[in-house]
Amino acid sequence: MFGLGGLLSYALNTAIFLFLRRNVGADDRIAYAVSLTVTSVVSYSWSYFVNFKTSRSLRSALTRYLTAVGVGYVLNYVLVQIGLSFWWEKPKLVILVVMVLIAGLKFLAYHLWVFPQHRQLEPLP
Prior knowledge:
By secondary structure, the chain is an all-alpha fold. The protein has helices spanning 2-24, 28-51, 58-86, 91-114.
């Protein structure tokens, strides 16, 4: 499900970015900030309710999520801006490569810290 969420995030992120870039005439930095923000909000619901079901409360998970997303957001934004400065004609590829690079870090952060699954250990016989 994490992979499906990643594909949906990529599709949403690039669609919003390209719409703002082409149809609204927004600067790449503004367009990507808006698309990344919308994608992050949608991804939180997906992660909480689908990917990482947890006993942690929605509010408690939100605090940790915002911390993890904040770090990921900054990394993502900076790396995409650097990539676009070299390959401005290939925004979909730049966004995809950066999202894939950061996905592993996000998965570990979400699985181990943001949405931990507290499994009950069975007592030893």
